[in-house]
Design brief:
This protein is α/β, with parallel strands linked by helices and 354 residues long. The protein folds into three domains: 45 residues, no CATH class; 235 residues, tm_1862 like domain (pyruvate-formate lyase- activating enzyme), CATH 3.80.30; 56 residues, Beta Barrel (OB fold (Dihydrolipoamide Acetyltransferase, E2P)). 31% of the residues lie in helices and 21% in strands. It contains eleven helices and 15 strands. It has a five-stranded mixed beta barrel. Strands 3-6-7 form a three-stranded parallel beta sheet, with helices on one face. Strands 8-9-10 form a three-stranded parallel beta sheet, covered by helices on one side. The longest helix has 24 residues. The chain is globular.
């Protein structure tokens, strides 16, 4: 928002003292030290990686940490505002990434999640060291046990990355692979640069290498021009892939994007119904998947007390499913083996065996 609207925010909201874009966070201490009467807008872009040092980064969790490896995106999907607000792709030097992960591992973090708008396009700015090579390097760091990464653009997700997931024991068999729609015709209008068939080929590679892999995705319904037949293709894709989880949205135009120039042709009530029906189908799929875990044991990273039951605990398994469980001892921050005794559509339930 700051990058997009800049000085307009100061004019429309006088209470705002300064506007800082995502490339200028490091300036905040200096801005705060200045005369508060001066209105400041700082939204310049830099192609270099210039971020606060790791010593200034505060992680919400003491057990699972996000580690940024890149920012921005060069894909320019028709509906997406990221290239206009986060800029073009730029990559954090490999040495800084490895140093931060080593430091987190020394602090007893159990899980590392690599973060970027399109992690698969990562290249070390110093030697063009790629994402697959980075995964192998991180896997060799001792201490932490689980490694994940988000987000992967299907166009850039490679078979080599799938092999790296299989071969490196720290990498969880869990992947967020946003498809957006199950219709090739809609994908073309979205400028996603892959077809339904190409996406499914990558899903099959992943499933052949890792039959236990947990897949999640993003879905947009009601994109301009989406017909009933194209929407049905999306429903069929959910049935075919059997995602463990989805993030689903009604289409709405974003400033500066090419789709905002098109007629928002799908009526709002149609969008609402399509989203409701899509989510109902996914809820049934998730319940079916979760029921298959009953009677089994799953390794779970305990992240804290359950929000609904302060005497219980909650965590996530390797597939990034929520696991709520009871335990006779405090196991926060530890890996525990949980026997699954029940489930809902959005979580597994059980008791700790460790």
């Amino acid at each position: 928002m700051a990058q997009l609207y800049r000085a307009e925010l100061l004019k429309s909201k006088p209470i705002i003292d300064f506007v800082v874009g995502p490339d200028n966070y490091r300036q905040i201490p200096q801005i705060l030290a200045q005369d508060k009467k001066e209105k400041i807008v700082s939204t310049t872009w830099s192609s270099d990686w210039n971020k606060p040092s790791e010593s200034h980064v505060i992680h919400k969790s003491r057990h699972s940490a996000f580690v940024t490896i890149m920012e921005g995106c060069n894909n320019f999907c028709s509906y997406c505002i990221v290239p206009f607000t986060r800029g073009r792709e730029k990559f954090r030097p490999k040495t800084l990434i490895l140093d931060e992960i080593k430091a987190l591992s020394d602090l007893n973090y159990k899980e590392i999640i690599l973060l970027g708008q399109n992690v698969n396009s990562y290249k070390d700015p110093d030697n063009h060291f790629g994402f697959v090579e980075l995964l192998y390097e991180i896997n060799r760091i001792s201490g932490f046990e689980w490694l994940r990464f988000i987000t992967s653009h299907p166009r850039n997700f490679t078979e080599e990355t799938a092999f790296a997931m299989k071969e490196n024991k720290k990498i969880c068999h869990s992947l967020h692979l946003p498809v957006q729609t199950g219709s090739t015709a809609t994908l073309i209008r979205m400028k996603r640069r892959y077809t339904r068939e190409e996406y499914m080929e990558k899903v099959m590679i992943l499933r052949n290498l890792m039959p236990d892999i947990s897949l999640s995705t993003d879905i947009i319904v009601g994109y301009p021009g989406e017909t009933d037949e194209e929407y049905q293709e999306t429903l069929n894709l959910l049935k075919e892939v059997h995602y463990t989880n989805i993030f689903s949205f009604r289409y709405s135009p974003r400033p500066r994007t090419s789709s905002a120039l098109e007629e928002d042709s799908v009526a709002l009530d149609v969008k609402k119904k399509r989203l409701i029906d899509l989510q109902a189908l996914q809820k049934d799929i998730q319940l079916e998947i979760n029921r298959s875990f009953i009677g089994k044991t799953v390794k779970t990273l305990c992240l804290g007390h359950s929000k609904k039951d302060s005497t219980g605990y909650t965590g996530r398994n390797e597939g990034y499913q929520v696991v709520n469980f009871v335990s006779d001892k405090n196991v926060i921050g530890q890996f525990v083996i949980v026997k699954i005794t029940g489930c809902g559509s959005y979580s597994l339930h059980g008791h700790s065996l460790t």
